[in-house]
Specification:
The complex is a heterodimer of chains A (170) and B (304). With 170 residues, chain A is mainly alpha-helical. Chain A contains six helices and no strands. Classes of the chains: A mainly alpha (170), B alpha+beta (304). At the A-B interface, helix 1, helix 3 and helix 4 of A face helix 1 and helix 2 of B.
Chain lengths: 170, 304
């Protein structure tokens, strides 16, 4: 892959770390019970779909969506649908978005997060739900704002020098 | 060189499976199918139960930090607070002792009267104490998950109460946990009786208002703010006489033949930690004669 100039060469991502981070995000998302809380699982899924599209794709997004539906006791498939769409949109932009700096990346991801939320809202309204409180719309905003932080944290294991005694960037 | 010898398929490096668009279609179609099957056909429950059971250890794990913090917080409660609580509990106990005495006497009297009238014994079913594991983090619905499931004999449709009154109904049962739809959920309806006038009606969940709404009540209905609504017992699910709600607002408007009546649940709908699951009345009643139709007065409460 052609790399932007001046970027650090990253170590290969460990599959173990990818899945551990996804499970951890699932746990954290399970803890939240307010509508405004960011959907960390969606954020981490988007992150790995953009950085490792061959490892984490739509199948993973679909399965995690099903798990979220069961946890929230909602209609089975609504999160699966919105996560699948989110994963598709991430795959569409994954070659382009990494050439930008972190704030611009977050700005480009904001429409994705909003689109996933709107999709979920439409499904709920079609299945006879009511409008959620306005704080519902804070959640995609927070997800986009957390993107730079997620990029730092989730890339940490790959930023280590091949020989740990040379430099310790962590 | 003949054309047939050239390997025209791309090298494996470029093979990435089906295109993103086709995968999107497949998974979206699957998700839509699941939604339709879940909402209309009801054939997905085994899958949901299996997933819920597999998810249970994770949920348990996710709850441990919060539980630990709570335990720590209780540990450091001040002595004053503990004494105040004990004082309040003693007062409450004294007040309840008085009532308990009366209730015993009344129960006895009632029993005698009923025996005189040769009425069937009033049904008082077995109850199960459960604890709320978590509230479903869905901004559109009001459900809690309790820690008893099929393994503990919880049935779909069972009424759920707390120390103050009815809080909801079990709508889904998994092997280890169950879902309770709360009274204020839009999908739940409960038949109620006004204790002051004996008027029967059906209360619908209305989360955007006080919690419950009595629909289709004529504008001249005899209802006052502060009226106590209890379960009427004619639905075959809820035992009669459990407190449900208190009427908070009545709006009578000239342009409508119906009044808008809102009520607030008496049970701790959004804060209860410990709940009791009762057996639905119907499982204790003798089977109805086949010719007789179910009474039209709102039997439904959530999903059957």
């Amino acid at each position: 892959m052609i790399m932007p100039l001046g970027k650090q060469l990253l170590l290969p991502a460990s599959p173990l770390f990818i899945w551990t981070s996804l499970i951890a995000a699932l746990l954290l998302t399970m803890l939240g019970s307010e509508p405004w809380m960011p959907d960390l699982l969606a954020l981490v899924l988007v992150f790995w779909t953009i950085h490792q599209p061959l490892r984490v794709g739509m199948l993973a997004a679909f399965c995690f969506g099903l798990v979220m539906d069961v946890h929230q006791a909602g209609l089975l498939g609504q999160h699966a649908l919105s996560y699948t769409a989110l994963s598709f949109l991430s795959i569409m932009i994954h070659r382009r978005v990494l050439w930008f700096g972190a704030p611009s990346q977050a700005l480009q991801l904001l429409p994705l997060m909003v689109a996933a939320h709107v999709l979920e809202l439409v499904v709920r309204l079609l299945s006879g739900g009511s409008m959620p409180p306005w704080t519902f719309w804070i959640s995609p905003l927070l997800q986009a704002l957390l993107w730079p932080l997620a990029s730092i944290v989730l890339l940490m294991p790959q930023r280590r020098a091949p020989d740990p005694d040379l430099t310790r960037p962590l | 060189m003949p054309l047939g010898t050239i390997d025209r398929s791309p090298p494996p490096f470029f093979k990435q499976g089906p295109s993103a668009l086709s995968r999107l279609f497949v998974f979206s179609a699957l998700a839509v199918f699941l939604m339709v099957a879940d909402a209309r056909l009801g054939v997905i429950d085994p899958l949901r139960s299996a997933l819920a059971t597999a998810l249970y250890p994770l949920q348990w794990l996710a709850l441990q930090p919060g539980r630990g913090l709570q335990a720590l917080g209780r540990h450091f409660d001040s002595l004053d607070q503990a004494q105040a609580q004990a004082q309040a509990a003693r007062k409450e106990l004294a007040a309840q002792l008085l009532r308990a005495g009366q209730v015993e006497q009344l129960t006895q009297e009632n029993q005698q009267l009923r025996q005189l009238l040769e009425l069937r014994q009033r049904l008082g079913g077995p109850a199960q104490a459960t604890e709320v594991i978590y509230q479903a983090a869905d901004p559109y619905s009001y459900k809690v998950i309790i820690d008893k499931g099929m393994a503990a004999g919880v049935e779909v449709g069972s009424p759920v109460i707390d120390s103050a009154g009815v809080v909801g109904q079990v709508t889904r049962v998994h092997p280890l946990v169950s879902e309770v739809t709360l009274l204020i959920d839009r999908e739940l309806t409960i038949p109620v009786l006004n204790t002051r006038t004996g008027l029967r009606s059906v209360a619908y969940g209305e989360p955007s208002e006080d919690g419950l709404e009595l629909r289709f009540m004529a504008a001249n209905t005899d209802l006052q703010e502060g009226d106590l609504l209890t379960t009427s017992g004619i639905d075959g699910i809820y035992p009669p006489g459990l407190p449900v709600a208190r009427v908070t607002r009545i709006m009578r408007r000239a342009e409508s033949a119906f009044a808008r009546i809102y009520a607030q649940p008496i049970g701790q709908v959004s804060a209860a930690r410990h709940l009791m699951v009762l057996k639905p009345l119907k499982s204790q009643l003798p089977p109805q004669p086949p010719a007789q139709e179910a009474s039209p007065t709102g039997r439904k409460g959530g999903r059957p």
